[in-house]
């Protein structure tokens, strides 16, 4: 089977009925780029930039970050690279930032919440990103956005830094698409409000599931609540995709669910545009995608959303569909 998949390295990510999608890779460091090329990914859908901060004993400088982003963008040779701004906090701590100890780190001071309060860190990162955008197709997305004000504030800061750089380099960063992750239920529920102001969404199902079911993603005792096929979650995801499309925006997914074989027909049926996953899943997913018909997948979504009551119900329906 692996040999069959390997033949698809240069094949388009397309359904059996000819609808084009994008299958992308998630990366943490530049070392992951070898696997991205080997898998023939259509894009880097999630560059977890916090690894630049975690693999260092002090804040990475603008120059260090610029070099890292530039290398990834150049390796992709014109294909999109989505860089997520620093997602520190929660389970990812940085000793040199001296963040406060918290009762509930996952509900606390993390990701965009830190970036908006410690703006010099955020502005340094944005400048490095804007400068790197000259070398390919770089996109930026913000993690853990819960309210429209947060997105607007982040966007304003981005525009300010871009203007400063444009004083000496006219037009730099003008084509950067700005998006947000959908990881917080409030953002998913109000996707229609965000869709007007973003260029794209990327659904982070690892956190979205954690927050939707109020179950720590790292706690074995409650791991039964990790339910990607639960109708509550599926409805939320469909709502986000529909809201993006109503405004002509791209809907992507970069959580584990994007590379899941059971989820694939459901996500294709909902019309999800981009699937970003571990590079090791790209070819398997492309192969499966090429055997699926989007109209039949859409019927499956209807059937699941009107009949499934549990995670297990959905699994059974999808398995029958795939047979
Ligand atoms: C997610 O939450 O689904 C996601 C992609 O981000 P991370 O796993 O890095 O939190
Ligand atoms: Mg996340």
Automatic annotation (TrEMBL):
Single annotated GO MF: phosphoenolpyruvate-protein phosphotransferase activity
Task performed by this protein: General (non sugar-specific) component of the phosphoenolpyruvate-dependent sugar phosphotransferase system (sugar PTS). This major carbohydrate active-transport system catalyzes the phosphorylation of incoming sugar substrates concomitantly with their translocation across the cell membrane. Enzyme I transfers the phosphoryl group from phosphoenolpyruvate (PEP) to the phosphoryl carrier protein (HPr).
Domain of life where this protein originates: Bacteria
Similarity annotation: Belongs to the PEP-utilizing enzyme family.
Catalysed reactions, as listed in the record: L-histidyl-[protein] + phosphoenolpyruvate = N(pros)-phospho-L-histidyl-[protein] + pyruvate
Location relative to the cell: Cytoplasm
Keywords recorded for this protein, A-Z: Cytoplasm, Kinase, Magnesium, Metal-binding, Phosphotransferase system, Sugar transport, Transferase, Transport
Residue window of the full protein shown: 251 to 573 of 573
EC number of the protein: 2.7.3.9
Record has Magnesium as a keyword: yes
Keyword Ribosomal protein appears in the UniProt entry: no
Enzyme class: transferase
Cofactor: Mg(2+)
Name the record gives this protein: Phosphoenolpyruvate-protein phosphotransferase
Domain PEP-utilising enzyme C-terminal: start-end pairs: 3-293
């Amino acid at each position: 089977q692996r040999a069959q998949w390997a033949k698809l390295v240069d094949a388009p990510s397309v359904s059996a009925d000819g609808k084009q999608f994008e299958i992308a890779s998630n990366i943490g460091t530049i070392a992951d780029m070898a696997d991205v090329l080997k898998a023939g990914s259509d894009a880097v859908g999630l560059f977890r930039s916090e690894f630049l901060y975690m693999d260092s004993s002090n804040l990475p400088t603008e120059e260090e970050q610029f070099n890292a982003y530039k290398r990834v963008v150049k390796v992709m040779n014109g294909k999109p690279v989505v860089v997520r701004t620093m997602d520190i906090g929660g389970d990812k701590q940085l000793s040199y930032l001296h963040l406060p100890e918290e009762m509930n780190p996952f509900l606390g001071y993390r990701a965009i919440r830190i970036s908006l309060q410690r703006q010099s860190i955020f502005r340094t990162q944005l400048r490095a990103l804007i400068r790197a955008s000259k070398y390919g197709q770089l996109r930026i997305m913000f993690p853990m956005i819960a309210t429209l004000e947060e997105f607007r504030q982040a966007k304003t800061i981005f525009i300010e830094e871009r203007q400063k750089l444009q004083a000496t380099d006219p037009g730099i960063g003008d084509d950067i698409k700005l998006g947000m992750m959908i990881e917080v239920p409030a953002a998913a529920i109000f996707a229609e409000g965000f869709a007007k102001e973003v260029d794209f969404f990327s659904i982070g199902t690892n956190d979205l599931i954690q927050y939707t079911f109020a179950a720590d993603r790292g706690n074995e005792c409650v791991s039964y609540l990790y339910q990607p096929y639960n109708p509550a979650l599926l409805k939320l995801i469909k709502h986000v995709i529909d809201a993006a499309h109503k405004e002509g925006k791209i809907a992507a997914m970069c959580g584990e669910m994007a590379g899941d074989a059971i989820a694939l027909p459901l996500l294709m049926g909902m019309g999800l545009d981009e699937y970003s996953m571990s590079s090791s899943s790209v070819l398997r997913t492309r192969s499966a995608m090429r055997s699926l018909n989007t109209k039949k997948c859409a019927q499956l979504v209807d059937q699941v959303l009107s009949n499934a009551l549990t995670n297990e119900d959905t699994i059974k329906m999808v398995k029958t569909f795939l047979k």
